[in-house]
């Protein structure tokens, strides 16, 4: 079996290299190294050790992943030809060394046998340089592939591969999505060596006028104050859990799924209104209020032992992947219309068998939406007018019957006929692709806006409604309409 021996060169100079590793390297007639930019190699070269580096591969690619893949593939070919080779990497082979991870993949596939000889990783001298005990919790992240959501602000963060101003700038911008611009970060170069250099700067200076190299690591200390971690999901979850705890808020502790139901509806309506107004600040605030409802319900589920936020996330994540086979699988679509068709088909396949098309369409908090859903479902099997003309005829018929009930019928008959009128109105809205719920919201908002103007006009005038005739009050109403249209100041 083809064999590759992987040797760690340690984090600093030759003096920190274990004696056994030193003797092993000295005895190698042929040695491959990922990069010759390491102090141990310079000293070994002075002692007559020769080696071949892969530094030229870095010049061929813009993407580090391609570099690491090519190096690993080349090593596998060389090992096939020579049956056994030695490959040396900075630090420890199993700490932040992607080429070794590719070789491990090949080993699992049965293509090669690996022998790994350690070397001191850069982590030990790094912990010493910044005086950190790793048991407190830390993250080691790759600066060339850093994402905002990778960063946990309550932990010690070490970011490697920050080797030049460009990579430092990318790291800085990513961190600024969470941390204040002036948050202190520490730049550690050549940790553990005689050339070790440690400097703390505000985050915004990370990419300015300082020496960076492939031996540079950026350290970001944990954020201890909760108020400074408000941009993290976990912080919000912690706040909601505290509110529901015995030491928290009596009102929040008393809430149930049922008691919170009306608040969920109200918050969604307020979000819809902020969207209608195209008010970004209001949208942020209202999205937060909706999110609070989600987290509260999830916390109630966890407190009662039935489900947790993880169950909610798993459910929606699985659903999104399942209903987007054109994104996550090999299904091909040519338009958004095809996407919606597939979505509906997948959705229907997920539902349990029902006795009626109308099962599951009832909305207890909105009779308008219930009517809309019933009619939409009935239409899927052809129980519908062929066009909007039939819907208009039915509306006029129901209005006539309502008028007759008002003239001759009982209160129950009048109420029944009014329901029919409203039902046909919803049907017209469906034909015209209008939301009856939104229409009702807008009508309520419009009435509130104009009536408040009437109230203000009365207060500015004679002070009471009884001092005005209906025509005079209607004149104020018309002024409100004109103001909305910009016809008067």
From TrEMBL:
Keywords on record: Hydrolase
InterPro entries xref list: 4pyrrol_Mease, 4pyrrol_Methylase_sf, 4pyrrole_Mease_sub1, MazG-like_dom, NTP-PPase_MazG-like_C, NTP-PPase_MazG-like_N, NTP_PyrPHydrolase_MazG, Tetrapyrrole_Mease/MazG_pred
Enzyme Commission numbers on file: 3.6.1.9
Residues in NTP pyrophosphohydrolase MazG-like domain copies: 255-328, 396-451
Domain Tetrapyrrole methylase: 3-207
Keyword ATP-binding on entry: no
GO molecular function: nucleoside triphosphate diphosphatase activity
Keyword Hydrolase: yes
Signal peptide start-end: none
PANTHER family (alphabetical): NUCLEOSIDE TRIPHOSPHATE PYROPHOSPHOHYDROLASE
Name of the protein described by the UniProt record: Nucleoside triphosphate pyrophosphohydrolase
């Amino acid at each position: 079996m083809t064999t590759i021996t992987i040797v760690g060169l340690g984090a600093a100079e030759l003096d920190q290299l274990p004696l056994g590793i030193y003797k092993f390297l000295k005895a190698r007639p042929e040695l491959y190294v990922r990069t010759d930019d390491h102090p141990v190699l310079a000293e070994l070269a002075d002692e007559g050790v020769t080696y071949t580096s892969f530094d030229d591969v870095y010049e061929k690619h813009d993407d580090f992943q391609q570099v690491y893949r090519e190096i690993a593939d080349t090593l596998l070919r060389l090992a096939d030809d020579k049956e056994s080779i030695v490959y040396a990497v900075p630090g420890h082979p199993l700490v932040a060394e992607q080429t070794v991870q590719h070789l491990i993949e090949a080993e699992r596939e049965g293509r090669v046998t690996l022998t790994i000889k350690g070397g001191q990783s850069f982590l030990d001298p790094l912990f010493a340089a910044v005086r950190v005990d790793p048991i407190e919790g830390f993250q080691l992240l790759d600066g060339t592939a850093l994402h905002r959501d990778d960063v946990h602000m309550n932990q010690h963060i070490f970011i490697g591969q920050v080797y030049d101003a460009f990579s430092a700038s990318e790291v800085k911008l990513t961190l600024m999505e969470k941390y204040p611009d002036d948050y202190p970060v520490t730049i550690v170069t050549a940790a553990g060596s005689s050339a070790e250099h440690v400097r703390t700067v505000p985050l915004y200076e990370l990419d300015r006028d300082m020496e960076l190299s492939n031996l540079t690591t950026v350290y970001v200390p944990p954020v201890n104050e909760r108020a400074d971690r408000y941009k993290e999901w976990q912080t919000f979850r912690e706040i909601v859990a505290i509110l529901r705890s015995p030491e928290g808020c009596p009102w929040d502790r008393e809430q149930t799924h049922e008691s919170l139901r009306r608040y969920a509806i109200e918050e969604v309506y307020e979000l819809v209104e902020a969207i209608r107004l195209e008010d970004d600040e209001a949208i942020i605030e209202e999205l937060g209020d909706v999110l609070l409802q989600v987290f509260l319900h999830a916390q109630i589920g966890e407190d009662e032992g039935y489900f947790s936020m993880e169950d909610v996330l798993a459910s929606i994540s699985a659903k999104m992947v399942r209903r987007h086979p054109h994104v996550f699988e090999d299904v091909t679509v040519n338009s958004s219309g095809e996407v919606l068709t597939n979505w509906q088909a997948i959705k229907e396949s997920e539902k349990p068998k029902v006795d009626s098309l109308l099962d599951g369409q009832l909305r207890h908090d909105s009779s308008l939406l219930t009517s809309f859903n019933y009619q939409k479902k009935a239409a899927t099997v052809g129980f519908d007018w062929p066009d909007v003309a039939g819907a208009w005829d039915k509306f006029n018929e129901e209005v006539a019957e309502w008028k007759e009930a008002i003239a001759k019928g009982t209160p129950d008959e009048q109420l029944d006929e009014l329901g029919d009128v409203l039902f046909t109105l919803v049907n017209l809205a469906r034909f015209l692709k209008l939301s009856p719920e939104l229409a009702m919201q807008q009508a309520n908002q419009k009435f509130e806006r104009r009536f408040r103007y009437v109230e203000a006009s009365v207060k500015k005038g004679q002070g009471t409604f009884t001092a005005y005739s209906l025509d005079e009050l209607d004149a104020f109403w018309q002024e409100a309409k004109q103001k909305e249209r910009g016809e008067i100041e």
